[in-house]
Design a protein that fits this description.
Structural class: mainly beta
Number of helices: 1
Number of strands: 15
Strand order of the largest sheet: 1-2-3-4-5-6-7-8-10-11-12-15
Length: about 260
């Protein structure tokens, strides 16, 4: 081990007095047609942990909701083994403004005020910050608010990391998030707490790997479900190509599809 350290120092020209290495060049806005395929193991993140969601997890950028000066980009997400589809609407700073959750004829809309960050681009390396956002849950059929929620995320940014995945090697920003989500629908209060390690690559615009560790689910002050863990790892990244747009339901990647790797 000591010899290895000496070789590294010799190659790098000794120990630098001050490091200037940083990935703080914010990613470009999303583009319609970007597609990310993950191998997921474990239950559905932020679910009750009862059902195995292992298999493909697919995220597709399907276009802006309101083209113009301040568009919101629609990221549609499906899990191979879980029915339904989730769409998140993000601005060019990757702040989540609202979500639509759809399963069969049922559809819920969740609004976030202020918008919830997912990749913390304002957070310097080795810094920690707490973010708060309030949710309003709306029944899309009636337009009525049926619930509320509060999210508190204390996030620490670690060192930048090169992640090696089946899709390639990517330089990533590493965040450790301690998240508390408390929701209330009528007389039902549910609290979930989790630690999430996420790795985001500016070169491809989305996350490369996410590791979830959930504490037991608390309902009206009582533990009703045990904790669980889950992991999603990128297996295929497909950059924007207007001649080849994949609907979110087409989740199975083929061997001849184009992959992008960071050089």
């Amino acid at each position: 081990m000591f010899l290895g350290c000496l070789l590294i120092l010799a190659h790098c020209g000794g120990i630098p007095k001050k490091s200037s290495f940083s990935l703080d060049q914010n990613p470009p806005p999303p583009e319609t047609g970007q597609r990310y395929v993950y191998k997921h193991s474990g239950p559905l993140p932020w679910g009750n942990g009862l059902k195995d969601a292992g298999g493909l997890r697919v995220v597709t950028v399907t276009g802006p909701e309101s083209p113009g000066k301040n568009p919101l980009w629609r990221f549609e997400e499906i899990f191979e083994r879980v029915p339904g589809i989730q769409a998140g609407y993000y601005d060019t700073n990757y702040l989540l403004h609202h979500q639509v959750l759809r399963e069969g004829e049922n559809e819920l809309r969740i609004q976030y005020k202020p918008p919830q960050p997912v990749r913390y681009m304002d957070l310097p390396r080795e810094a920690e910050k707490t973010y708060r956002s309030r949710q309003t849950v709306i029944d899309s059929r009636t337009g009525a608010a049926i619930g509320t929620g509060e999210i508190t995320a204390t996030v620490r940014r670690g060192y930048d990391v090169r992640m090696v995945t089946p899709a390639g090697a990517y330089l990533c920003r590493h965040f450790t998030e301690r998240i508390r989500m408390a929701t209330r629908v009528e007389d039902l209060a549910v609290e979930m707490n989790a630690v999430v390690d996420s790795y985001w690559c500016d070169a491809i615009g989305w996350f490369v790997q996410a590791e979830y560790a959930f504490e037991p689910v608390i309902q009206n002050g009582t533990v009703v479900q045990p904790g669980y863990q889950a992991v999603s790892i990128l297996t295929v990244y497909e950059p924007m190509d207007p001649t080849r747009l994949h609907p979110p339901g087409n989740a199975t990647p083929s061997g001849n599809k184009r992959r992008s790797r960071e050089k």
